[in-house]
Fold this sequence. Notes:
3 helices, 25% helix, 11 strands, six-stranded antiparallel sheet, elongated, Alpha-Beta Plaits, 2 domains, Translation Initiation Factor IF3, alpha+beta, five-stranded antiparallel sheet
Amino acid sequence: MIRTLITSTALAATLCLPAYAQLQDNEPTLSLSESATVQMAPDFATVSSGVVSRAETAQGAVRANAEAMSEVFDALRRAGVDSDDMQTAQLSVSPVYADRRQPNQIERTIIGYEARNQVSAKVRDTDRVGQVIDAMVSAGANNINGVTFGAEDTDEAMNEARRDAIAGLLAKAELFADAAGFELCGIRNMGESGMGRQPVYEARMMSLDVSASTPVAAGTLTLTATVSADFCINQ
């Protein structure tokens, strides 16, 4: 369900008359901008999670990490996430240092190696996000980066926001004309600015207690359309 919210504040409004005018082709113009937003429910979530492993050698860290991540991928499949909706987002191996103080200097010594593997999983049932997180944690995931929500198709919602923004823009132009005592004679040009798509909502897990399903609220997505126009006027 889409709920429309009209933003009444103009981003820019400039009345161009002789004493304070910006003339285009020797014609006074009225320049206005208007925004409108729509809200829609998300239809998928992306969970970013992975495993950080340490060992005395790089090979040992990589081996331990691979074993743990294999369990995480299996857990995702059992939780209903399709293999095509899983993607490795980060894979790295780096030394772990310890600082040892020596007379007049600090010596850095490698004490082990750390392997990181991060997976991005697309959950198409937003009601199951908490269960998917729990499954990953139970399987060994120890690095949860967060959850983002999005929608596959935002075109209809964006078009609704554009229509509302244009309607608000025309109404505002009529208001200016009535209040200032001039007539509008047409639109010189019109455009859209910003392309304010915000089809992503970020949520933080409230708990990682695997004794109960992790609560995650999907919320709503907000999309904004901003249109502007220059109106020619008759004084």
